[in-house]
Here is the input.
Amino acid sequence: MLPLLLLTPQVLVTALFFFWPAWQAVYQSLFIQDPFGLKSQFVGLGNFEFLLGDPYYRASFRTTAIFSSFVTVASMGFALWLAVMADRLIKGSGAYRTLLIWPYAVAPAVAGVLWLFMFNTRVGVISWYLEQAGYDWNHVLNPNEAMGLVVIASSWGRISYNFLFFLAGLQAIPNSVIEAAAIDGAHFWKRFWTIVFPLLSPTTFFLLVVNVVYAFFETFGVIHTITTGGPQQATTILVYKVYSDGFVGQDLGSSAAQSVILLVVVGILTIIQFRYIERRVHY
Amino acid sequence: MSGMVEKRGSGYWLTHAGLILGVLVVFFPIYLAFVASTVTQPEIVRPPMPLIPGRHFFENYREALVSGINAPVARMLFNSTVMALGIALGKIIISILSAFAIVYFRFPFRQTFFWLIFLTLMLPVEVRIVPTYQVAANFGLLNSYPGLILPLIASATATFLFRQFFLTVPDELAEAARVDGAGPMRFFIDILLPMSRTNIAALFVILFIYGWNQYLWPLLITTDPQMNTIVMGIKQMFPSGDDIANWPVIMATAMLAMLPPVAVVIFMQKLFIKGLIETEK
Here is the structure.
């Protein structure tokens, strides 16, 4: 009896707020509902068929792919560059670490507001200087600039996390390996690309998966604060579309079907992550 | 790869310069927000805004905290504190209890429970928002603290972490406790909990930040401005039409929204890094 009692709180919360809603998502995805939920009509896989043929939904897939690739590459690249430099220092890398890790604590939504402020078309400092330089910045109207801005804001918030893991990975590489190469006369960048970077690949791969998950699911706050998915849905990533179709558009069947598709995506990403971590333990 | 190689070369100062540049890039948005929170609205709306702090710090922060725009920011800070503490403590309590049950007891369907908890890893709230909202609404949880907290406290990650840790605790301890006539709960409270102290603390740091920074869920569940959390409340402070936003007050609010989690990271850096690397999520 005791063990079941101990499990009860977690099982209860999980059942009520995880499994029941997930089941509801699957169930609702098979119906078309009117906005008040009074009438619903069974349509089988109709919602899915409609979604897969819907140009807006396909565009959202493409947007998500572009957005998450840029966010992953930008924040990992910048973080790796910083970590390599911090690792070259014998003293003081701890101080830089302290200076660089705290943006982890800044919420994506707050990061969104900070960058919105800098690029605001009326009062933004950066947009003002761009204008002086002859470039008319307007992310409210220009889809590419909107995408650029949400990518920068999302990557900025992620630098700390990637930096921390890259630095730990670099510091775990034995000095003897590097010194042997140095004695052989290999220069810094040659050593980096031929020895260090391959040895760092477990960290890099792990971060790749984690950053894609981040870009997919945790950047809602950035998008909602900066662009609300616009202009012309240019920054409507999949998670944002579930929200806007479900809550703003009140199209519950379609939103539920999108949730189910996302469940499959999360499932695949989780499996990749776990198989990978399993190997990482033995590395 | 630090160490004997290239202790001081021509690259030494270049390395520092590069790092300082990186730090400046990371700091600049926050610095600008701070400056904006210390100047007046007219100074901001006539660009370019000043790049050094002004003299209206107390004025702006007082206005934000006491009156805010839709609700006093002090109220939103309180709501965020309740939510973050509720999520962090709630997750820790339910996960440590279930991990204890799974590791130290043999009972029917033990593996089934384990997998049920494991599966929740695959269901982030962002994915199941509409039906979760409906469940919460049916329970009358809109605009309430339980509504902000409960749907977010089930956590496979925390359960795993405790399970992993419990598996490393030598069996002899449990046996010794049994020989001494201590029941399972005595063993849990007197031996296991004290041993888990650092793990609990590290997890608390990560979960507090996670809870504080929630955005989508509070956005759905709190329609009453008095129940808004600070992170989601900032966006609500922007005017809907063409009016100009009250930037000094909004930026003061943004600074206040960052302060608690950033302070946690800086002052509990060791625990934070430990928590981050162990949860890996």
Q: What stands out?
A: Chain B touches chain A through 96 residues (CB under 8 Å). The radius of gyration of chain B is 24 Å.
